[in-house]
Amino acid sequence: MTELSLRLAVSFVQILAEVSIVMLTVAIMTLAERKVLGWMQDRMGPMEVGPYGILQPLADGVKLFFKEDIVPAGANKAMFALAPMLTMVVSLIGFAVIPFGPNVTLDINGLLIKPFVIADINIGILYILAIASIGAYGIILGGWSSNSKYSLLGGLRSAAQVISYELNVGLAIVGVLLLSGSLSLVEITEAQAGGFWHWFIWGARPDGFFPIHTQVFAFVVFLISGVAETNRIPFDLPEAESELVAGFFTEYSGMKFAFFVSAEYASMVLVSCVAASLFLGGWNAPYPGTIFEYIGLEELAWIEHIMWFAGKVYFFLFVFIWLRATLPRLRYDQLMRFGWKVLLPIALANIIITAITVYFFPRD
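Request: output the structure for the sequence above.
Response:
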């Protein structure tokens, strides 16, 4: 086997494993959200399919697979079919630069690979921001091509919402970039090693515990803007069931509808992965080293790193569900005012303050 074919085979296996993990998480989230919402609202949630309803995602998938694919008579059929596929693909390819585990390198027949990140590129953050901006096109195309007033209004709302909150996401990240000195998510994560006080949400310098570079305000701005970017309650104005039936995917059914729903959950997972990597140390434990290293099993330390990363991601996913169970939907004018008049000034102020503190008190 040539080096090129070996590299392609390894990359294919990595991509297949990553997509499988993400889609499994999406399936788990469709059940977990309904269960957690049920518990928070003092009811049981799904209980009929399988023990305690654990097979509900499988039943939902089978149902959507066999449902009739209806295309409105006045729809643009090509764009109508392209929109859900575009949204789904964009929500998945962003995971290529996410480091799920430590930055280790394996030698396979002379080929060096990093098993826990598909592409360690030095502009990982810019890549994710670019991909996220493309995702809005799928929603806009779906709203326009359906030839429905409800869908069109949902698509227009999504366009304005993405433009407003994507800016805040980018500005919230700048403080982290100033502290890490890199755009690579791998290097940003490695810069937070050594304990929770080195995580950027806390912001302590490597030689001290005082949080002089704290990014807690950037973290809050990023988290709120991430919820808005994924069209989740209380920022689900593009869908808004009580106003627009189902918003931009009102006319969709069958697997096209499943693609839109799966893309939303995959985007939630991606936002959670980025938040964990930027502000909570990614795969780093909240204490120096790992427990496996303390007991003399250094070769198994990667297991603990992956568990910490997964725990942080699932914590953020729980927050998404918690917000849905707690907060009502905002009015559209409140949504726009909050993004431009509250979050934007906070993000700009955080950049200025971080730049000043880094200049006078360098992190290294």
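The chain has twelve helices and two strands.
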